[in-house]
Amino acid sequence: MKYVGYCRKSTDEKEKQVLSIDQQIYELKEFALREKIEIVDFLVEKQSAKVTGRKVFGSLIERIEKGEVQGIVAWNPDRLARNSIDGGKIIYLIDEGKLLDLKFPTHWFDNTPQGKFMLSISFGQSKYYVDNLSQNVVRGLHYKLKQGTWPSLAPFGYKNDRNTRGIILEPKISKVIKISFDKFVSGEVTSIKEVQNLLTKNKIIGKFGRPITLTKVKKMLSNPFYFGLMNYGKDSVMGSHAPLVSKRNFDLVQEKLAKRDDKRPHTNIFPFTGFIKCAECGCGITAEKHFKNYPKTRGKVPYTYYRCTKKNGICNQPYINSTSIETQLRDLVGSLSLKEIWANKLLEILKKDEEKEIKFAKGELDKFSFSLTETEKKLDKLLEGYLEELVDSQNYQQKKKELLGVKQSVQEKIALVRKKGTYWVEPMRAFLNEAVATAKIAHENNNCTLLSQSAKKVGSNYLLED
């Protein structure tokens, strides 16, 4: 009778008690000498047996069906199968008389009804071990999640801490991620490509020295983990890790991502496109760069002209050079700016108003605290309804996610009131400072990009006409 030695060690299961491949081969050879059996070949596989589809095991079954071998030698029945289908194949081949014998150094088997019964029990125990192990791992991960600790590999910007079994900030990367969110909110960065360039500029790159992929950058900007909410499977839990951004800033970034229209990068950058429309037909404004050669003086000189895209058909509006648009925008932005002396007086008034509002903050804190308490009560009632099977799993998870977002938002409002006393003071202060900065931008030269950004801030619905 010809036997095949089958050796397997899983690479994705923590089976530390199982012998290595080399040890299994050695033990099977020693066993074959003692039992005086002929092993014609050794088949080696490094794959889990908890699911079907093992290629080496499949080739072994084919050889048995063809009659090339009649017996199998393995260290233990769990090396052959940890699922009911593969175990059933072995027993079926024994019933058909194609597989005549099985040999195990650690397990007794005889080709009798009792022997097959004991073999099926061994396969069942192997399957139970895998199922139970998987269940225990899932249970452990969910328990860790409920404690506010991320149970998996740390997201981008964080790293796993071996000492606390939790996650901590990765100083360099987390700092740049925070800057990326802040610049996206302020408008300094408007596209995923620009965020990618910011990461690359700070030497945060991917594998093989290449820039972080745009897909990963978008995933980073859309991950609620950075404001504290952990989404793992179907669960949503507020984590105990240090957040990188506020819920408010995260929501603002999501709004901008939803509205964005990333375009392929262009070689030419025209600062006055994207926010001006044609007054005649309502189409957008595009730009073209032309060159004129002055061989005896300045050589090849570029000139930029703006015109209507004419996507709606015929439009009679002519070209206009960039200098003309720049002059008009400088006049407009300058007229809407604020002198520094006026801004300082307004800031003094603002400071007095802030002091008054701080006194009013106590009432606001009481209101938000009440809202927070009510939200927590709703979460408790929602959980009770779920446990009593009054709410199905899908609705429970959806409503829980909404309430957790409300809770986080209220907590941030409470923190802001405690810090500032009110919400409008800081934006007003920023507006006054921006108005002063706008005046400087309007009077400087060679700053068309900044001029364009200021024009977008102080106005909208710009129309271009002859």
UniProtKB/TrEMBL annotation:
Pfam families: Recombinase, Resolvase, Zn_ribbon_recom
Any one GO MF annotation of this record: DNA strand exchange activity
Domain named Recombinase: residues: 155-263
TM spans (from-to): none
Record-annotated Resolvase/invertase-type recombinase catalytic domain positions: 2-148
UniProt name for this protein: Recombinase
Source organism: Candidatus Woesebacteria bacterium GW2011_GWA1_41_13b
